[in-house]
Design brief:
Elements: E1 2-11, E2 14-24, E3 28-33, H1 40-47, E4 55-60, E5 63-64, H2 70-77, E6 80-83, H3 95-106, H4 111-124, H5 140-152, E7 158-162, H6 170-187, E8 190-194, H7 198-204, E9 207-212, E10 215-220, H8 222-227, H9 231-237, H10 241-251
Parallel strand pairs: 3-8, 3-9, 6-7, 7-8
Antiparallel strand pairs: 1-2, 1-4, 4-5, 9-10
Helix pairs in contact: 3-4, 3-5, 4-5, 5-6, 6-7
Length: 253
C-alpha cells in the first residue's frame, strides 16, 4: 500500500499539488485521472521520488520515504516497475535484451537465468518467439507489451503506468488494460495508472482518484463514479460520447 498524507508540491511561488491525502491499495488497479495540467504527473513524480514534496509524507507500506536512508531508497527502487507513456524501449537492444536489462542492472543471476526469466515474462504478456526482434520491427501494441514485461520482470511490489493506452487503437488498449489488471492480481502489486482514458478507467479501474487543479476532488470505485453528482468530475468523465451513452444506459428506468 502507498499512502499520501497532506502532500503539497510547489515550484517557486506556484503551488501544483495542494494537500492531497489518499491511499493506493495493494492488489488493486488504482487510477489517477484528471485534465491535462491538473497535477497528475507531478504527484506521480513525487510518489516515485523524482520530486520531493514541499510538505507532507509519502509512505510505502507504512515507511515514510523521506525517512529512508540511501540503501532503503535503492532497495525500494528495485521494487518499483515503471511503464512509460512512450514505452521507452532501447532501440539498439532486441526484445529479449530490453526485458533482461533490469535483471542485468539489479541482480546477480547468470546470463542463462536472466534469459530464462525474461522469456518466461514475455510469455506472460503473450509474446512468443519474438525475442530476437528489435522494437522498430514490432507494432505499437507489442511495444507496450514488451515494456510491461520489462516493468514486471523483477516482480515489483509497486507498478506505475503513465498513459499506457496512449496512441493505441481501442482493441489493443483493452488488451493492455486486461494485462495490467491480470498482472496486478497475480503479483498482488500496488498498481497506479495515470490516465485520461475513461474507457480504460471503466475497463480496469478498481480505485479511482480524480484530481482537479491540484486538489483531490473525488475518490471512489467505478459504480460511485457513474452516479457521482460532483460537477467537475461529471464534466471530465462525460466529455466522451462513450461515457455519455454508458451513463444513459445505466440510469435509464
Amino acid at each position: 500500500m502507498i499512502e499520501l498524507r497532506d502532500v503539497y508540491k510547489s515550484f517557486d511561488e506556484t503551488e501544483i499539488i495542494k494537500g492531497i491525502s489518499s491511499s493506493f491499495e495493494q492488489g488493486k488497479v488504482n487510477m489517477i485521472i484528471g485534465k491535462s495540467g491538473s497535477g497528475k504527473s507531478v504527484l506521480t513524480k513525487c510518489i516515485i521520488g523524482l520530486y520531493s514534496p514541499t510538505a507532507g509524507s509519502i509512505l510505502f507500506d507504512g515507511v515514510d520515504y523521506a525517512a529512508m536512508d540511501d540503501k532503503q531508497h535503492a532497495d525500494l527502487r528495485q521494487k518499483i516497475g515503471m511503464l512509460f507513456q512512450a514505452s521507452a524501449l532501447f532501440d539498439s537492444k532486441t526484445v529479449l535484451e530490453n526485458v533482461m536489462f533490469p535483471l542485468e542492472m539489479f541482480t546477480e543471476l547468470s546470463k542463462a537465468e536472466m534469459r530464462d526469466k525474461a522469456i518466461e515474462t514475455l510469455h506472460k504478456v503473450n509474446i512468443i518467439d519474438k525475442e530476437h526482434l528489435f522494437p522498430a520491427e514490432t507494432s505499437g501494441g507489442m511495444q507496450k507489451r514488451i515494456a510491461i514485461a520489462r516493468a514486471i520482470v523483477m516482480e515489483p511490489e509497486y507498478l506505475f503506468a503513465d498513459e499506457p493506452n496512449s496512441g493505441l487503437d481501442p482493441q489493443t488498449a483493452i488488451v493492455i488494460d486486461n494485462l495490467l489488471q491480470e498482472i496486478t492480481y497475480e503479483y498482488n502489486t500496488t498498481t497506479i495508472v495515470i490516465t485520461h482514458d475513461m474507457n480504460s478507467v471503466m475497463e480496469a479501474g478498481d480505485n479511482i482518484m480524480f484530481i482537479h487543479e491540484g486538489n483531490k476532488w473525488w475518490q471512489g470505485d467505478k459504480e460511485s463514479l457513474i452516479h457521482s453528482e460532483n460537477k467537475e468530475l461529471q464534466d471530465f468523465v462525460y466529455a466522451s460520447s462513450f461515457m455519455k451513452r454508458l451513463r444513459s444506459q445505466l440510469l435509464s428506468p
